[in-house]
Amino acid sequence: MVVISLFAAISALGHGIPADLVLPGALLAPLLAEYLPDRLDDRAAGHLRTVEGDAACQYLQRLAALHTYLVQAAADNDHHALRRSAEIGQDLMWDTAGLLQTQDTRSVSSQLIDRERLMVQLTDQVAQILERTCAEARSGPEDQPRGHEGPLGRPYPPGFEPAQRPTPRREPGASRPKEYLPVPHDQPDDEIRTTDVYLLFAHEPYYLGVGTQEINTTLVAAASLLHPRVRQPDGAQIHNRLTQGRWPGEIVPLSTLTHELGGGADWPTVGDWEHVTADLVQLVRTAGCDALSLGLAEIARALVCVGPLSHVRVFDATADQFIVYGPQERAAVLAEVDMGLSGLVAEREFWPGDGLLSPLFQQA
């Protein structure tokens, strides 16, 4: 610092800077040198984060492997969405490092899972963009396939592939309205009981075997709620609420019941839905009743889990904006589930299980 300040002083004097300004600076610079490393470290701390510990480092390595894919994709292709994905991935890595710098992995496990899921979504989105770009390069505009449209004339949520329409299970003129609108214009009277309805609910994912599709949503006949292996009287009370004012054959998501029960505030007066749905999953997995087991994509499953008037916001890296899915997209998902259900019950009606309890409204 003495040498540097000496040459800096000579240069400053040579450029006409007054000596009474140059000399104090040249003398103070060496004296302040011992404080420089600490100040530089403090300044650098704002631009780097240090993570220690095997668990934290292994987690960051998994994120880094995914982010490397994003960076490589952005380097090989000048697509805006790819560059944006890499930027989001970098911000995600930075935030995660800050989280791990101050806390252990166990205490913030849920937040870490959310970040890893988001990084996986980014890589999946990038993979789809690259695949679509390659497909467009191989084929001309006239060969481009049209997007899937739902029964309401609107696109299906990403990742929700429409099934082939099966033979209708009801006679023409005898079926209920198929729009699945959140508030039907001709809603049946709440006093009317319809036992031919189905309960649709999401649950913790499971796999039927190695390499099989994830099962994360299940549909059962309403009568399965009366099974003795389901928590009672909770199951019977939920069945009592489920069958009020429904159309024959209607698919009722659990989230719709939550919406009807004051946003969930009145669930304690009806029953423990968490315990009941867990019992239903076990009943289905042990072949105690018929069910439609589904592996819905994330957006479709999220729409099933929210109320009929709610919205789901998803960030689309391709468009660099949030996309909002609402009641109409939810209705399209339910209509698609109904198509799959139609193909099953066209052969035979759902078996709700043996030894069922009597419904509450029959006992009254």
Structure description:
The structure is a single chain. The chain is an alpha+beta fold. The chain is 49% helix and 9% strand. The chain is built from 13 helices and 6 strands. It has helices spanning 2-14, 19-32, 36-45, 54-76, 80-102, 109-138, 234-242, 254-260, 267-270, 273-285, 298-305, 327-345, 360-363, and strands spanning 198-207, 214-221, 251-253, 292-294, 312-316, 321-325. The chain has a 4-stranded mixed β-sheet with strand order 3-1-2-4. A two-stranded antiparallel ribbon has the order 5-6. α4 runs antiparallel to α5. The model is unreliable at 141-185 (pLDDT under 50).
Can you describe this structure in just a few lines?
With 364 residues, the protein is of the alpha+beta class.
Strand tally: 6
Radius of gyration: 30 Å
User: What series of H and E elements makes up the topology?
Assistant: HHHHHHEEHEHHHEHEEHH
Return the average pLDDT rounded to an integer: 79
Structural class: alpha+beta
Largest sheet: 4 strands, mixed
Uncertain segments:
141-185
Gap from first CA to last CA: 94 Å
- Helical content (DSSP H or I, runs of 4+): 40-55%
Total of helices? 13
Any idea what the shape is?
elongated
> Beta-sheet strand percentage?
5-15%
Strand order in the sheet with the most strands: 3-1-2-4
